[in-house]
Structures are given as structure tokens and as C-alpha cells.
């Protein structure tokens, strides 16, 4: 079987954008292997840079380092090109290096001809007690050519590989400055540089010389970890070289970095320990990875999902590495997190209070802000997060509304879950923006219309309307989380209550003491000051009760809604109101307001209104009212339709200003 050598090179997956230095790395890797085979006491690798000075130097430093690189020459004092090495070089995908424990795939040299015109190899090696020199060229289309071999008198071994005449696409992409070359070599071969007896790598560029000094990589520590039964080692390196510019994680194979990535969860600036400043790099090695590196050494072949055959997947490995890194850098990360939290608080408190909801105790948004971010970056991040939540919340509400509109019946349990999962998650984002919140309110009005217009079945409208107006079986105080409700549908002022309790026995109301069980108002709003003034007084000034009855005829039962609310009021008057740790009697001066929301047209409702002499509001279309003087209580029977109608009226001016329709249900002035 014959091999088309030129086609092999053409199909080598080497990008001029990301792989411009890969051929150089391959030459250095061969030198490292040659040094290991020779067991040299003082191993060295010299890299010589030859530049194309025919072009005009831009931003030069006087040493020509801004000229593009034409050629590299890599020298070592390794074992040399013996007959066995020459045979392996002539064989594509040779297993020689694997057989002698050096790893390798036997194809890396093809990358040389992907980026350079030709390669010249000169070497001396020892055969028994004699030394020989070998020289040949490696080029397209034949591969090895012009080979010469002869005995030499020099009693030393080594190899020189010259990568001649870089091709234009790669030449333009190669970094030109020597310090950047040094940095990239360090990153790629760090596992070798921190091993025992590493080679001394020196870069030469005309009159300029740069040592890759192992002392620049002090404080090397290692942490072993296991994942799905496979063993890994994380090498923690603190790089003190002035040429390093970022914190990195590299997954390695056969002593070389294969999959590097920047660390995003710590600031991209030097950290500081007792010795001085440094950049942190983590190099992960494992026999497991050595076996799974691709033939071209550009990727580690790990599945996206774990399986019985391949239990280690890419995502799990990266997450485990991040965990190990976070643990190792905990002191530095904790300090940066504290600084980030302070910076975010400064932005939210002094500049953008509308974003405060994004950094609440139940939010992980602050963790998504990169450590070390300044005020501008923090503001930009919060603005994007806010916009995303507005869009997401509005879309979810729209989808919920469409489902309700299409359905014949609505399950009370399901609708409560929708409100808990969809509505409460969306409302905070919308309330931070007036425009978004007005659009949100319009959808809530439409949703209310949809709920009360549906037929019965297993759907309990009382529970559904209750959940929409205020979450059931909950309580809030001190204006905490008062925004997580729609009490504004009934009365905008209710959100200023000192304490609100919903659908719980009054004996469990935190605002009350010494009350008997058996009374459970739907919603009770406690005020220790009047709506308009007297905010500094401690007594219980007002209580607003919202009682909801299912749309449609009221069921016949022993106690009608008016008697229920009267019983609630009497029970509350017998109790005490807690304010700032003190118990204050709820006396006769406490005013009560009761909204009984129900179907006004039902016969039982009309009987109640007549018996207790309720007066009509605008002929009864807007409800009925009564004032119970002995109880100091104002009662109002409110039609379900009036809630949405009044809400549209109150918002009409805002909707008109925003050119937003007032919602379903006709004209808001009707």
C-alpha cells in the first residue's frame, strides 16, 4: 500500500490562526524526547530565530523583534538521529516513541511542512563506540530527501532542526516578540519544565538572548484527584515571570498542554504571596489523558456525556478541575469575592438601586460577575442580566396567559404552581423598570380577566384569584417582599401595610397575640399608621381584610361572608398588636376596612345586602358599601369585574403615554 505524502500534509488540521507555533512546539518536543533517551546530565535546547528583514520594521525595539519570523532552528544535546530514529522518521504513524515510553503519535513532523517550505535536519549520534553525522532534508512532495551519513570525529551527540521559510499565512500569525515566544513555550511545556532535571531552554534572536528560567516557576504544588475511577494530578504553578499575562488551566497529554483555557473566576491580575506577585497556572496530567489525546495533539478525545465505556466526560472533568483550583486558591478568591461584593453594593446603592433585586439572597447573579470587575463592568453585567430577566419573565407570562385563554377549565392547583414558579420569578425584574412593570401589570389585568371568565369543573376560582392577588399561606412584614404580590388590583395602598398575612388562622398571625383559633381571613393587612399620616405612632391604626368568594352563586351555608368578616374583626379586637417588641391592645380606635369580592348578582348576596342595609355605589354596578359604627368598620361588596375595570382605569394614563392598549375587557373608562 502506497502513501500519498503530499495529501497527508494537506489534510493536516493545522490552523494558521491558532496553530502558528505548533510546528515549533513539535520540534522542541522531539528535542525533549531525544534528551530523555540520552540521559544527558545538563540537557539544553537552543531555539534560534531568523527574521525576514526585507520588510519594514514596525514599532521596532532596536533589535529587529518586530520583523516577521522566517525560520526557526532548534538544537539539543540529545541522543541524535540513530538508525532506529531514522527508520521511525521514514514511517508515518511510527510506534517507536510509544515503544520506548515517550508517548507520541508518530505524525507530528507533518505539521512542519504545513507551515514551512522545507526542513533541514543535522545530527550526530553514537553507534557502539563510533560517532556518525547524518544530514537530510524533509520537504514536499517526497518527504525525506538528500540524506547523507558519514563518520565524524566529534565525540558528542545532538540534533539541529531548521524550519525554513515560513509560509505567508503562518508567518503573519506568528508572535514576533521574543518574550511572547518564551511565554507560549513555557505554557505548552510546563509539565516538562517543572519535572526533575528539565532541559535549559534558551531563545536567541540576533543579539538578544532570553533564558526560560525554571526559577520563574516557583511554589509548584500538586494535588491528586479521582474522577469516575480515573486518577489525575493537578500541578499548581505560580509563575513569576514578567512575561506572563493571565491565569490559565491546561489539560495536558504526554507532557504537553493540549486544551488550555483562561480562568474566568479570578481577576486577571497578578496575585500576591509572601514571595511576591505571580500568575497562577494549573496543569492537569494523567495516564488517562495521555491515551486519549488526538493524533494531531490538538484535542483530548472526551465524550460530551459519560458512558460505561467512557466514564469521564469533558464537562465533569472541567468542573472537577475548577473545584480543585478554587480550593487551592481559596484565600485569594475569598478576598476577591469580598471586594466584588463591596463593589456591587456600591453600584447598586449609589447609582442603580433598581438592580438591587438581582443580588438578593436567593440570587446567584453576583457570582456570575467576574472577580476584579470595575464599576463599569459591574453596571454592564447587571444591565444585561436585568434585560434578560425582563424578556424571559414577560415571555413566560405571555405563554401562561395563552394557555389560560385556550383552556376550557383551569386547575386551581396548577394555576397556583404557575403563579409560584412563573409569576413570582418574573415580577421582581419587571418592577425594577417602570415601563416593564406597566407592561407586566397589563398582563396581570388580562390574566385576571381570563381567570374569572373560565368555567368551573375542578377549578376553584376563589383559590385562583387569591393566588393571583397574593400568595396563599404566606406572611410578610416590614415591607419585605411586598412587591411579590398583586394587591394593587384591590387597592394600591395595601402594599404599604406593616404586616400582611394570607390564608392562615389569625392565631398564627405574627402581628397578633392572645387571639383564639377559628378565624382565617383570606388576606389581612395590618397598619400601625394611617394611610395618610401618623407614621410614628405605635398603636394598631388600621386593618384591611380582603375576603374572596368564588365567582358565580354563593354556596348556601351556615355563615355568609358578611358574618365571617364581622367574626374576624371581633377576634382581632380581642387580641393585641405587636410593634417593636411591645404588645399594644387593638382597641375601639382601630379602623377596619373589609373588601368582600364576590358575584354581586347572586341571590344570596342580594339578600345579605338588603338585610344589612348596604348602599349601592353608582346604582350597584360598582358594588355596595356599609359602615358598621359599633365595629368602626367599613364594608364593601365588590364585583369581580370591578377589580379589573378599576385597574384599567387607574393605569389608562400610563398605558396611553406608553402607547400600550389598556388590555382585554373593553375600554378602561367603561
UniProtKB/TrEMBL annotation:
InterPro entries in alphabetical order: HATPase_C_sf (IPR036890)
Q: Which GO terms describe its molecular function?
A: ATP binding
Query: Among its keywords, does the record have Nucleotide-binding?
Result: yes
Q: Which organism is it from?
A: Mesorhizobium sp. WSM2240
Q: Which UniProt keywords apply?
A: ATP-binding, Nucleotide-binding
Record protein name field: ATP-binding protein
Amino acid at each position: 500500500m502506497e502513501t500519498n505524502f503530499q495529501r497527508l500534509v494537506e489534510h493536516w488540521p493545522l490552523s494558521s490562526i491558532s496553530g502558528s507555533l505548533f510546528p515549533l512546539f513539535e520540534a522542541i518536543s522531539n528535542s525533549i524526547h531525544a534528551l530523555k533517551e540520552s540521559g544527558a546530565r545538563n540537557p539544553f535546547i537552543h531555539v534560534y530565530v531568523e527574521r525576514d528583514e526585507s520588510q519594514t520594521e514596525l514599532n521596532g525595539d532596536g533589535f529587529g523583534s518586530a520583523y516577521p519570523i522566517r525560520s526557526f532552528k532548534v538544537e539539543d544535546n540529545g541522543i541524535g538521529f540513530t538508525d532506529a530514529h531514522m527508520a521511525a522518521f521514514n514511517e508515518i504513524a511510527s510506534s517507536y516513541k510509544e515503544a520506548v515510553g515517550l508517548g507520541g503519535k508518530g505524525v507530528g513532523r507533518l505539521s512542519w511542512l504545513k507551515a514551512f517550505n522545507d526542513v533541514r535536519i543535522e545530527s550526530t549520534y553514537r553507534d557502539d563506540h563510533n560517532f556518525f553525522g547524518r544530514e537530510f532534508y524533509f520537504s514536499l512532495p517526497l518527504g525525506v530527501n538528500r540524506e547523507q551519513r558519514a563518520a565524524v570525529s566529534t565525540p558528542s551527540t545532538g540534533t539541529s532542526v531548521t524550519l525554513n521559510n515560513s509560509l505567508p499565512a503562518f508567518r503573519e500569525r506568528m508572535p514576533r516578540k521574543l518574550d511572547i515566544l518564551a511565554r507560549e513555550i513555557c505554557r505548552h511545556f510546563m509539565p516538562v519544565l517543572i519535572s526533575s532535571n528539565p532541559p535549559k531552554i534558551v531563545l536567541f534572536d540576533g543579539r538578544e538572548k532570553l533564558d526560560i528560567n525554571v526559577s520563574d516557576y516557583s511554589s509548584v504544588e500538586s494535588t491528586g484527584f479521582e474522577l469516575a475511577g480515573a486518577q489525575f494530578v493537578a500541578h499548581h504553578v505560580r509563575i513569576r515571570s514578567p512575561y506572563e499575562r493571565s491565569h490559565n488551566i491546561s489539560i495536558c497529554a504526554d507532557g504537553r498542554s493540549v486544551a488550555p483555557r483562561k480562568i474566568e473566576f479570578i481577576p486577571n491580575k497578578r496575585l500576591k504571596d509572601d514571595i511576591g506577585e505571580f500568575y497562577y497556572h494549573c496543569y492537569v496530567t494523567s495516564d488517562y489523558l495521555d491515551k486519549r489525546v488526538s493524533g494531531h495533539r490538538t484535542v483530548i478525545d472526551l465524550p460530551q456525556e459519560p458512558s460505561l465505556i467512557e466514564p469521564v466526560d469533558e464537562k465533569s472533568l472541567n468542573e472537577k478541575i475548577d473545584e480543585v483550583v478554587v480550593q487551592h486558591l481559596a484565600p485569594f478568591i475569598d478576598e476577591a469575592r469580598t471586594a466584588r461584593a463591596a463593589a456591587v453594593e456600591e453600584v447598586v446603592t449609589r447609582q442603580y438601586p433598581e438592580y438591587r433585586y438581582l443580588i438578593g439572597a436567593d440570587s446567584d447573579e453576583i457570582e456570575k460577575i467576574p472577580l476584579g470587575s470595575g464599576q463599569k463592568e459591574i453596571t454592564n453585567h447587571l444591565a444585561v442580566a436585568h434585560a434578560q430577566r425582563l424578556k424571559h419573565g414577560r415571555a413566560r407570562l405571555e405563554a401562561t396567559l395563552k394557555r389560560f385563554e385556550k383552556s376550557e377549565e383551569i386547575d386551581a392547583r396548577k394555576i397556583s404552581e404557575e403563579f409560584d414558579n412563573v409569576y413570582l420569578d418574573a415580577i421582581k425584574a419587571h418592577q425594577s423598570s417602570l415601563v416593564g412593570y406597566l407592561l407586566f401589570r397589563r398582563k396581570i389585568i388580562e390574566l385576571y380577566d381570563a381567570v374569572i371568565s373560565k368555567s368551573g369543573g375542578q377549578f376553584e376560582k376563589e383559590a385562583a384569584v387569591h393566588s393571583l392577588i397574593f400568595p396563599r399561606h404566606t406572611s410578610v412584614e416590614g415591607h419585605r417582599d411586598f412587591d411579590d404580590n398583586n394587591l394593587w388590583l384591590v387597592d394600591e395602598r395595601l402594599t404599604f401595610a406593616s404586616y400582611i398575612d394570607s390564608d392562615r388562622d389569625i392565631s398564627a398571625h405574627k402581628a397578633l397575640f392572645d387571639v383564639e383559633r377559628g378565624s382565617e381571613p383570606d388576606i389581612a393587612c395590618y397598619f400601625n399608621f394611617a394611610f395618610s399620616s401618623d407614621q410614628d405612632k405605635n398603636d394598631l391604626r388600621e386593618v384591611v381584610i380582603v375576603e374572596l368568594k368564588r365567582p358565580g352563586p354563593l354556596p348556601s351555608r351556615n355563615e355568609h361572608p358578611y358574618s365571617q368578616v364581622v367574626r374576624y374583626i371581633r377576634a382581632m379586637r380581642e387580641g393585641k398588636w405587636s410593634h417593636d417588641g411591645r404588645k399594644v391592645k387593638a382597641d375601639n380606635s382601630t379602623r377596619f376596612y373589609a373588601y368582600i369580592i364576590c358575584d354581586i348578582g347572586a341571590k344570596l348576596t342580594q339578600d345579605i345586602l338588603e338585610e344589612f342595609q348596604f348602599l349601592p355605589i353608582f346604582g350597584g354596578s360598582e358594588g355596595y358599601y356599609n359602615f358598621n359604627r359599633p365595629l368602626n368598620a367599613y364594608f364593601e361588596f365588590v364585583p369581580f369585574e370591578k377589580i379589573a375595570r378599576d385597574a384599567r382605569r387607574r393605569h389608562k394614563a400610563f398605558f396611553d403615554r406608553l402607547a400600550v392598549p389598556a388590555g382585554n375587557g373593553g375600554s378602561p373608562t367603561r
